[in-house]
Amino acid sequence: MGRRVQGAGSVYLRKDGRFAASASFEGKRITKYGKSKKEAWDNLQTALDDLKAGRVVLGPKQTVAQYLTHWLEDEHRLQIGPATLQQYRSVLRAALIPAFGHMQLDQLKREQVQAFCAAKLESGLEPGTVRFYHKVLSCALTAAVTNGILARNPCQNVILPKVPKRKHNVLDKEQATRLVEAARGRRLWFLLLMALTTAARLGELLSLHWEDIDVESKRISIHRTVSRIIGKGQLERLQPKTSSGRRRVVLAQAVIDGMPEQKALIATLRQRAGIRWNELDLVFPNRHGSYLNADQVRIELRAILAEAGLSKRTFHKLRHSAATILFAAGVNPKVVQEMLGHSDIATTLGLYGDVLPDMQQEVVDIMDDIFE
Could you give the CA distance from residue 370 to residue 294 in angstroms, rounded to a whole number? Predict the structure, then answer.
């Protein structure tokens, strides 16, 4: 059946016509294959060299698909929110498993990951999407290294495409005022006012309760959000992903003054709904008292933008607009960071670094006044 080669292992012919080279390493049987005796033996020696050098760690035999599924569903899901979990599942299903799933985990190489990224970019995917695919795969393989399954992360040293600097397409102070005025008399008026003055996310505003508003101190407490979970078909109330996401944000006087009008709108909705009303004490309820549908908000926003003579923008651009307006007004970046709920100042400066150079002239003017 086979023959011993210098006492280090054996090479034998399989029934399928391939040659197999096999040897023992640290109590485990290592087998590699080839079209010829030499190819099989060379593959075995390469594998043994990798093991001896620590470039590969022996672990449970599994495919990349098996490992990625286990990592996400049994480990990483404990560290992320439902919306992020769905996003990661989509990346695995649509990109990573089709590309690498059939491979043995310990056979995945940097060159294959590099080729995958290049092919995805060439296919027309945005650089940011390619980088996100790489991020998910690298996160999974980093865990494999930490758990002793792999000795090295094949995603390391992969050259990634540069992402063009994003243009936020934000509203300036005049445009923001025009948008709010165009929304007067509509159910989104108070929601848009709050978004442009607090820089809160849509999910955070839609989950806001009246008890979260402290009129005396002119602040709101943001400590929850709502999101539609794919596959479940309904909205779920969630906790912020980080502790910095739970925050207290100061309210403009315009918001305080607008509260009676919003409460009057809710009273009208409650009366119309009658027994169908679901009392959740929401600041922005739908016509039955439950959570507003985010998709419907986006549809109505487009109509209001058009009426105000403004170009199309997503609701999230209102958050960027609020931050930019604050920077333009000279508000300390640390204060803006806390309003946005970013975990560190680097995130804030990374997003709005292009706004800050315009503020440097103010510093020059102050210095000139001091030392003239």
Answer: 51
Structure tokens at 264: 């009057």
CB 278 within 8 A of CB 289: yes
Are 34 and 42 within 8 A, CB to CB? yes
Main-chain phi, psi angles of 282, to 5 degrees = -80, 145
Say which amino acid occupies 7.
Answer: G
Computed over every residue of the chain, the mean pLDDT equals 84
Q: Which tokens sit at 368?
A: 């000139």
169 vs 128, 294, 363, CA distance in Å? 18, 21, 26
Return contacts of 83-89, CB within 8 angstroms, 24+ apart. Answer: 83/227, 83/229, 83/238, 84/241, 86/229, 86/230, 86/231, 88/136
DSSP tally for the chain: helices H, then strands E = 15, 9
Q: What is the DSSP letter of 80?
A: S
Whether the CB-CB separation of 191 and 284 falls below 8 Å is answered with: yes
**Structure token pair of residue 146:** 């930490």
Q: Are 61 and 94 in contact (CB under 8 A)?
A: no
Report the run of H or E that residue 4 belongs to, with start and end.
Answer: strand 2-4
- Angstrom distances, CA of residue 19 to CA of 9, 44, 102, 197: 13, 11, 21, 71
3-state secondary structure of 336: helix
Q: How confident is the model over 123-153, as pLDDT tens digits? A: 999 999 999 999 999 999 999 988 888 888 9
Chain mean position to CA 319: 16
Distances (CA, A) of 13 to 31, 147, 185, 186: 13, 36, 82, 78
- What are the pLDDT digits (tens) for 302-330? 999 999 999 999 999 999 888 888 887 77
Domains parsed from the chain with CATH numbers: 2-53 (3.30.160), 64-146 (1.10.150.130), 173-363 (1.10.443.10)
Whole-model pTM above 0.70?
A: no
Asked whether 161 and 127 are in contact (CB, 8 A), the reply is yes
Rg (CA), the chain: 29
- Going by pLDDT thresholds of 50, 70 and 90, the confidence category of residue 31 is confident
Angle between helices 189-198 and 173-182 (to 10 degrees): 160
Helix (H, G, I), strand (E, B) or coil at 203: helix
